[in-house]
Design goal:
The chain is α/β, with parallel strands linked by helices and 159 residues long. The protein has 5 helices and 5 strands, in the order βαβαβαβααβ. A 5-stranded parallel beta sheet has the order 3-2-1-4-5, sandwiched between helices. The N and C termini lie far apart (33 Å).
């Protein structure tokens, strides 16, 4: 059935829940889990001309993203599943475009990701990476929502 699952992580509670669901799905199949974090460099693109400034701005974010991926990889390893990690820097307005690109490049069978459950104006203003992935992905997508359907999940998203 599934041999390779892509799990995008942003540090939120719903992304962590998506990871747990991916592990539960992958375990009986012994499927590989690839953990992905998309580091949005677009807000810092204006620093590109300033020597070293871009690196100063991005270094702590890279470190936090690597810590996030390493902790998640330990969870997958604890389930005795094969795991790999990918950290990508992206200039796209939505991380969703990079998630779809990576799913294709890595030849994954399924994308499992958390969705924050935003509605109405919040979704319109903030956008939704999950909607971009759902709309643009040529492969199946499993969206995992917040535990409480009435409130968007709180979390320390790494951006």
């Amino acid at each position: 059935m599934y041999h390779s699952l892509l799990v995008p992580l942003d540090g939120s509670a719903t992304a962590a829940r998506g990871l747990r669901e991916a592990i539960a799905l992958a375990a009986p199949l012994n499927a590989r889990i690839t953990l992905l974090h998309v580091l949005d460099v677009y807000p810092f693109f204006g620093y590109a001309g300033l020597t070293g400034q871009l690196e100063l701005e991005l270094a702590p974010r890279r470190e936090a993203a690597n810590d996030l991926l390493a902790a998640a990889a330990l969870e997958v390893q604890d389930a005795q599943l094969p795991v790999s990690i990918v950290l990508k820097e992206s200039l796209d307005a939505h991380a969703g475009a990079e998630i779809v690109r990576q799913a294709r490049e890595l030849e994954c069978d399924l994308i499992v990701m958390g969705t924050h459950g935003r509605r109405g104006l919040s979704r319109m203003l903030l956008g939704s990476d999950a909607l971009v992935v759902l709309r643009d992905s040529p492969l199946p997508v499993l969206l995992v929502g917040p535990l409480d359907k009435d409130t968007p999940a709180a979390g320390g998203a790494v951006r």
